[in-house]
Amino acid sequence: MKIILAGGGKLGATLIRQLTAEGGDVTLIDSDPAVLENVQEQYDVMTLCGNCAVRDTLVQAGIGEADLLIAVTGTDEVNLLSCLTAHGINPDLHTIARIRNPEYSGQIYEMRDIFPLSMSVNPDKQAAKEIERLLKYPGFLKLDTFAKGRVEIAELRIEEDSKLCGVTLGDLHGIIQCRVLVCAVLRQGEVMTPSGDFELREGDRIFVTAPTNVLSQLLSDLGILSRRARRVMICGGGRSSFYLAEQLLKSRMTVKIIEQDRARCEQLSELLPDAEIINADATNRLVLESEGLSGYDAVVSLTGMDELNIVISLYAHANSVPQIITKLGRVDDTRVLDQLSLGSVISPKELCCSGIVRYVRAIKNQTGAAAAVHFIADGKAEAIEFRVDKNALRHGVPLRDLRLKRGVLIACITHGSRTEIPDGSSVFSPGDTVVVVTNRNSTILTLNDIFE
Amino acid sequence: MNYKIIARIVSQILGLEALFMLPSLFLALAEGRSRTALAFFASAGIVALVSLALFLLSRRGGKERQYFAREGMVSVALSWILMGLFGALPFFFSGEIPRYIDALFEIVSGFTTTGASVVPDVEALSRAVLYWRSFSHWLGGMGVLVFLLAIVPTANRSTGNTVHLLRAESPGPTVGKLAPRMRETAKILYLIYIALTALCFLFLLFGGMPVFDSLCTAFGTAGTGGFAVKNDSLAGYSPYLQTVTAVFMLLFGVNFTVYHLIFLKQLRPAFKNDELRLYLGLVAGSTALVAFNIRALYATAGETLRHAFFQVSSIMTTTGFSTADFDAWPVLSKVILVLLMCVGASAGSTGGGFKVARLILVFKTLRRNIRRTLHPQKVQVIRSGGQVISERSIENTSSYLAAYVFILLVSFLVLSFDASSTTTALTSVVACFNNIGPGLDGVGPACNYGAYSVLSKLTLILDMLAGRLEIFPILVLFSRSTWTK
């Protein structure tokens, strides 16, 4: 599959890593030779220096034979123009553009028709949505939704005083009353597919599949008693802060945004009349204290600098704010970050990448393609949702009789409106939805790939 | 340093070498030369065993697949050195080249496409040995690691830093890919190479050259090597065969990207190329000058022109075939030929030398720096073929020039210990370092390198390797920071 990628920034680099690993032939266009040199050192791709909206550059990159163009330069307008120009040369081309400007978000559906976009992505908005969901279920580090919102994979960290510390998975039902399944465990940077005699330890991050309606019970069984956040402090007033505040205000929460730039503050105040906008430096301890940090239910660090976000979150932790969410642009290895109390870590580029990867896999396999792909455990495992169709092998066979590839696990089966956390006697049949968790040693493109 | 991945690559390369010894084994059996056959059998066996041992070693423990520029450089340099050390075994075992140092010189000269020989009577060698000599040109011309990348799927399964291997092995100041995937790029290069070689072989065959001679000459031409199967090189063949060889040498000295572009029907970018124009211009100009200079030596204008063109094409592409003893030519012609030796072929071709592309860069940088002394605030980017050349490549080219001259001078000094004349010492180094083969005077087309001492031969062997791999991979081996953690 020939993919042309315009823009080699943070998202671009993540996409290159992912797409080349899945066997795509990637050509990267960027106007900065230093970026290209860097990418060329690390990945097996071709690079081209130039402006991705210029016809000649696109032709030279081989747009005529390409299957997909992904435009993720820093400028929305360039992304759109690039897709438009490319589509003029090759009408069969699929195009994906990153559109980040909130002013365009209202007209995004019209724009997809005017500019022939197959898909548009907005990492900031995705991040905001993710944060909003986390605020609704405090206690989880991360939530990934499947089966039209009926199933979640929740990430939990086993703290020292947790009830789960030292418990084997076989004894889990003694503590948790509802039916859940631990589908992956991240221990010291290694992802494991646990079996019944696996013992949980302090510091493990576990990934639990559960129907959405038992999430609250799961929390109370674990003794994590936390009420839903009502008062949220957002540090940094960028695009994702705006999206987040907008959503939170809709559900009648109290929102305070601390932003350093005066002009931006005025703009935000104009856009979000119900939010409290403070023009100050959020890394200043006095500012945070005078704004009553410890009285808030949640602090979200959303400035543009990872370092600042880490500092703010650590400070919030020291002031025992119940829920902390940290945005990080670069998370290559979380083993170091695991030792810090950053609460939930959100990475917009990873979120965005999984959406694009799902689309790419869907082009590759028109039938039997995944309905959703989520990277969990720092991208070391992935959870994929499939609809079982008539071509599925071995449907109607109890799971205990199936021979699956190593590191592959069926985490959930949805029959119509009924969600089942599977055991050995469960079966899936055409029409059902299945969530598969894999440790990524083998790429699972269709449901039939899971079998040995 | 990731020693495992290096061991893995070297093991694969040696495995390939063992495989490539087999045709010679069959040739020796067909000829009925049992000692030669046994020599090839034993050599292939030893190489295969070493390859297996390295493979097992590389499998022990974890499987780290990451490798970086450092591992790429070291893998390439080590592979080439080991290929030479083991490739010399058949010559030595068969007794056809009795001393090991001579055998080593001969095979390194083969792999590096130099074509400098220590064998006084080539026609006395068995066909198996002749084939192995010529085939080493073909393999070394495009590069054995590129071959590995093209055919072995596992060589590419690492996280994709195989571009370092291509960079270390392919000649030229900037090495670009032809396709998004390294494997595809390597495949395209070898397909072009094989197609052109086959074409050359057929043209020679139609001209009435015997099959074996055609094959060996085609290998020598394709790799721009220069080992011939006759003592008088190509002088004994018909004018048609000489012309065909001269034209194909010229073709193999062109950047292979040009052929790829022509194949893609992008004719304008293919020919809008500074390097190609200067390369062809230099060949045409030198041919004219040499022909004028040697007009008194030959009977007809056609013959004069043919000899001039053949020698210029052979020297410029760093092949080293000859149809005439140019050592007997007037001084002007000899000087032109020595200068062409230093210029060499185009980047991204199978030829050696300093490379026309680098020459262009050096001149443009020089011109810019002269202007800068007059206008100290002047800012100017350097372009080649419409593309802006990065300051980094300019810097690399300048340091390449420095290293090139330095190695040339040091080797000249070492050689002068036992060379018969100054010209001999200088042209030996120039001819070996630039991968040409014949020089002037004591190492002229009619003579060979057999007279040198072991020290001189070792120096020349290193020069040939450094010239073929473009200096840095070999220098890296001697740098302490390569081997520290």
Overview of the structural elements:
- The complex is a heterodimer of chains A (452) and B (485).
- With 452 residues, chain A is α/β, with parallel strands linked by helices.
- Chain A folds into four domains: 2-121, NAD(P)-binding Rossmann-like Domain (Rossmann fold), CATH 3.40.50; 127-221, 2-Layer Sandwich (Alpha-Beta Plaits); 231-321, Rossmann fold (3-Layer(aba) Sandwich); 362-450, Alpha-Beta Plaits (2-Layer Sandwich).
- Chain A is 30% helix and 25% strand.
- Chain A has helices at 10-21, 33-42, 55-60, 76-89, 102-105, 108-114, 123-136, 215-221, 239-250, 262-271, 285-290, 306-318, 334-337, 348-364; strands spanning 2-6, 25-30, 46-49, 68-71, 94-98, 119-121, 142-146, 151-157, 181-187, 190-192, 205-211, 231-235, 254-259, 276-279, 298-301, 323-327, 344-346, 372-376, 381-387, 408-415, 418-420, 433-438.
- In chain A, the strands form four sheets. Chain A has a six-stranded parallel sheet, sandwiched between helices.
- In chain A, helix 10 links the parallel strand 13 (254-259) and strand 14.
- The radius of gyration of chain A is 23 Å and the shape is globular.
- By secondary structure, chain B is mainly α.
- Helix content of chain B is 65%, strand content 1%.
- Chain B has 22 helices and two strands.
- Chain B has helices at 3-31, 34-59, 69-87, 89-94, 100-111, 127-142, 144-151, 163-169, 182-206, 211-222, 239-252, 256-263, 267-271, 274-293, 301-316, 331-343, 356-374, 391-415, 422-433, 454-468, 472-477, 480-483; strands at 382-384, 387-389.
- In chain B, strands 1-2 form a two-stranded antiparallel sheet.
- In chain B, helix 9 packs antiparallel against helix 11, helix 11 (239-252) runs parallel beside helix 15 (301-316) and helix 14 crosses helix 15.
- The model of chain B has no long low-confidence stretch (mean pLDDT 89).
- Chains A and B meet through strand 2 and helix 2 of A and loops of B.
